UniProtKB/TrEMBL annotation, chain A:
InterPro entries hit by this protein: Ub_conjugating_enzyme, UBC, UBQ-conjugating_enzyme/RWD
UniProt-listed CDD domains: UBCc_UBE2W (cd23808)
Pfam families named among the record's database cross-references: UQ_con (PF00179)
Organism: Pyronema omphalodes (strain CBS 100304)
Gene3D superfamilies: Ubiquitin Conjugating Enzyme
Name of the featured protein: Similar to Ubiquitin-conjugating enzyme E2 W acc. no. Q28FC1
Keywords tagged on the record: Ubl conjugation pathway
Domain UBC core, chain residue ranges per copy: 4-161
TrEMBL record, chain B:
BP GO terms, sorted: protein ubiquitination
Protein name: RBR-type E3 ubiquitin transferase
Record keyword Zinc-finger present: yes
Class of the enzyme per the UniProt entry, highest EC level: transferase
RING-type domain segment(s): 135-349, 139-185
GO molecular function annotation: ubiquitin protein ligase activity; zinc ion binding
InterPro entries hit by this protein: Ariadne, ARIH1-like_UBL, E3_UB_ligase_RBR, IBR_dom, TRIAD_supradom, Znf_C3HC4_RING-type, Znf_RING, Znf_RING/FYVE/PHD
Keywords from the named record: Metal-binding, Repeat, Transferase, Ubl conjugation pathway, Zinc, Zinc-finger
Statement: the UniProt record of this protein carries the keyword Repeat: yes
Phylogenetic classification of the source organism: Eukaryota, Fungi, Dikarya, Ascomycota, Pezizomycotina
Compositional bias segments (type: Acidic residues): 1-20, 29-43
One Pfam family, short name: IBR
Length: 161, 513
């Protein structure tokens, strides 16, 4: 069954190399011989949002064999010149609380989504934010017991941000 | 036995194994397969008048998975014959209306088109779904564009290749346990995937699981049904008590797996305490509202900035660290009013201090009151936990008694009965304390407390008899049997009194029920 995931990611990969990605979104790293390995995407903002002006952020995408039926694991990672953006729905360890990234009850993932559409959504999520803070309980979340992103049950209660 | 089961095993011996009354009750309700909305009230009233049924007992019936299925089918057939639609369609309609048959029929009669559309049965539903090959198609999920690909879409026209569609549905069914609310895979499309589509696309084991899940939604949607909460138990219990009646009755039911639980909230049997009080009580015991109570009993607040202060030594002239306000610890009044009588407060009648003192006294009294009830509640809870291996202990005792006294297995059964009654009464006693905690003090409460005291004393005596060494146990057989019967009747009296009181709203509580 991994066939679909691989086939789909190959297509997405080729599309990114040949076709144009939306402005502000770039493929930073992906392994052509093994597309199932994690991908990195760079995103920067288009409009002048004082919070994120001039910065580029890096997202890591991990896929499982059920992709795209199941969502990829997406989080911000740090690298040279790349930090975790301040946002009330982004924890300081890069975990993003976004309904799009989970399937199941209350989740907004649909198999029609792709790496590109996820990037666009996260880009606009940053775009629309002007609150310079971490989510409530950030310390507890980040330094508490480590969980797989899949196992975290976020409650999506805030449609505004 | 794993630790998970212990709670449930402790009442392996429930009423119906030694109590003929409740046997009769079970049998009597068994043929009433359905509680209709209209005649609920009627059923209930007539039932209460029957002499053999006690006020604290409710009608109930345990249903196996097959019973649930056949009940479902029965309702579907009924609606099908009224609306003149296929049973499959009626099943979808009923699920959409959460099995409120009357509402469905009423709304359907007003305008069938809209009902059909909303529940995902378009006008041309009768056309069976089928796979299609579409020229120039590229699947939005796997991005495959090979010619000759089997594709599928529902009426919403979101078309995907058959294998992606199947994977999507199977992951929803198997991984997420969804059934009646699976939506189209397209983003933002709220169309529910109908069962015909699912049957067409998924493998047989996923289809089986899907049907099972649909069965579950029936029990979840119906107000008069509830799954037995015991682990691994597959029975559902049918009981006509509604959520809005729970302040008047405590519906304890016994599943076929012999687990006793409250139909209202699913918790372990908590008679005579109504569900809402149980919830409040458990919350009170669990969260640290009592920590707050301690704080108010042992500390005072600065009269000016309300910082909490614990006095751990020194004189009564307090200076608040935070706001530098100076006050007297004894009367809570400002220090400068103390004039010449410094360090020795004799201004007891002064109004400025009396309010602070009142608050303190109140919270202290309330803490002590809570602890009174909590200690007794916890004591019975603890005893009940010790009793959880009582069953095996009893068995051992019974074997011993047989060998020492020469009594037969049948003759030593009284021990088993005593143990079961003991456990049941501890459970009841435990909850009487939570009940009493919320009672207003009046004559009814005094009667209740007398009943409680009688039951408690009887239980302790029986418990004592039970703990005797085997050689003495044989001699006290008659005494023990009498005591068992007495304890049981005391429990009946207490429960009867509280249940009747609840029904007639005779109890006045300190909180809203």
């Amino acid at each position: 069954m991994s066939l679909i995931a691989e086939k789909r990611l190959q297509k997405e990969f080729k599309k990114m190399l040949t076709g144009e990605l939306p402005p502000g979104i770039k493929l930073a790293e992906a392994n052509e011989s093994d597309v199932m390995k994690p991908w990195s995407m760079d995103i920067s903002l288009l409009h002048n949002n004082a919070l994120y002006a001039g910065k580029t952020y890096r997202l890591s995408f991990k896929f499982n064999r059920q992709y795209p039926i199941e969502p990829p694991e997406v989080k911000f990672i740090t690298a040279t010149d790349r930090e975790i953006p301040m946002h009330p729905h982004i924890y300081s360890n890069g975990v993003i609380c976004l309904d799009l990234l989970s399937a199941g009850v209350g989740g907004g993932w649909s198999p029609v989504q792709s790496v590109e559409t996820v990037c666009v959504s996260i880009q606009s999520m940053l775009e629309g934010n002007n609150i310079n803070q971490r989510p409530e309980g950030d310390d507890q979340f980040v330094y508490g017991p480590q969980r797989r992103i899949k196992d975290i049950n976020f409650v999506y209660d805030d449609p505004t941000v | 036995m794993s630790s998970d089961d212990e709670d449930f095993m402790s009442d392996t011996l429930s009423d119906d194994e030694y109590d003929n009354d409740s046997m009769g009750m079970l049998g009597e309700t068994a043929d009433e397969s359905e509680y209709e909305e209209e005649n609920d009230q009627f059923l209930e009233d007539t039932k209460f008048d029957k002499p053999q049924k006690k006020a604290y007992e409710v009608d109930f019936r345990a249903l196996s998975a097959n019973d649930v299925k056949s009940e479902q089918d029965k309702q579907i057939n009924e609606v099908s014959s009224i609306l003149g639609r296929s049973s499959e369609q009626c099943a979808i309609l009923l699920r959409h209306f959460k099995w409120q048959k009357e509402r469905l029929i009423e709304i359907y009669m007003d305008g069938p088109e809209q009902v059909l559309e909303e529940s995902g049965l378009g006008q041309d539903y009768n056309i069976s779904p089928r796979l299609e090959k579409v020229a120039g198609f590229e699947c939005g999920i796997c991005c495959d564009d090979e010619p000759g690909l089997d594709t599928y879409s529902m009426k919403c026209d979101h078309r995907y290749c058959a294998s992606c569609y199947r994977q999507y549905l199977e992951s929803k069914i198997k991984e997420e346990g969804e059934a009646a609310r699976i939506q189209c895979p397209s983003e933002g499309c709220a169309r529910i995937v109908d069962s015909k589509t699912i049957k067409l696309l998924v493998s047989s084991d996923a289809w089986y699981r899907y049907e099972e899940l649909l069965n579950r939604t029936y029990v979840d949607d119906k107000q008069n049904l509830r799954w037995c909460p015991a682990p691994e138990c597959e029975y559902a219990v049918d009981c006509p008590i509604r959520q809005n009646e729970l302040h008047k009755v405590v519906p304890t039911v016994v599943c076929n797996c012999s687990h006793r639980f409250c139909f209202g909230c699913g918790l372990h049997d908590h008679q005579p305490c109504p569900c809402s009080l149980v919830k409040k009580w458990l919350k009170k015991c669990e969260d640290d509202s009592e920590t707050a109570n301690w704080i108010s009993a042992h500390t005072k607040e600065c009269p000016k900035c309300v910082s909490t202060i614990e006095k751990n030594g020194g004189c009564n002239h307090m200076t608040c660290r935070k706001c530098k306000h100076e006050f007297c610890w004894v009367c809570m009044g400002p220090w400068n009013e103390h004039g010449t009588s410094w360090y020795n407060c004799n201004r007891y009648e002064e109004k400025s201090g009396s309010e602070a003192r009142d608050n303190q006294a109140k919270s202290r009294a309330s803490l002590e009151r809570y602890l009174h009830y909590y200690n007794r509640y916890a004591n019975h809870d603890h005893s009940a936990k010790l009793d959880k291996d009582l069953y095996s202990k009893t068995e051992k005792k019974m074997t011993m008694l047989q060998s020492t006294s020469g009594m037969s297995w049948i003759e030593v059964q009284y021990l088993n009965q005593a143990s079961a009654v003991l456990q049941e009464c501890r459970q009841t006693l435990k909850w009487t304390y939570a009940f009493a905690f919320y009672l207003e003090r009046n004559n009814n409460t005094y009667i209740f407390e007398d009943n409680q005291k009688d039951l408690e004393m009887a239980v302790e005596q029986l418990s004592e008899l039970f703990e005797k060494p085997p050689d003495q146990l044989a001699q006290s057989k008659k005494e023990m049997m009498d005591k068992t019967a007495y304890v049981k009747s005391r429990r009946g009296i207490l429960l009867e009194d509280t249940a009747v009181g609840l029904k007639n709203e005779r109890w006045s509580f300190t909180v809203d029920v």
